[in-house]
Recover the amino acids of this structure.
């Protein structure tokens, strides 16, 4: 029995894979923000942690990485 593999080469499957990679990249950045803050003993509220994890804006996440290097609380992280 032959299996049709055309879907896996289709534009739709390529788009789905790219979206998955982008989401994984954003998730990794968000986890990096939290890890940086945890390693620096900067504690975030659960609401703030969820805000970081739920952020879909890669540029904003990268900004938060930079701020996480020096922020002493969540206000400095989010408002700079």
């Amino acid at each position: 029995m032959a299996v049709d593999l055309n879907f896996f080469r289709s534009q739709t499957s390529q788009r789905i894979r790219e979206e998955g990679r982008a989401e994984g990249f954003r998730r990794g950045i968000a986890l990096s923000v939290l890890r940086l803050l945890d390693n620096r003993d900067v504690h975030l509220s659960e609401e703030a942690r969820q805000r970081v994890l739920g952020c879909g804006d890669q540029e904003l996440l990268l900004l938060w990485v930079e701020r996480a290097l020096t922020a002493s609380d969540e206000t400095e992280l989010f408002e700079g």
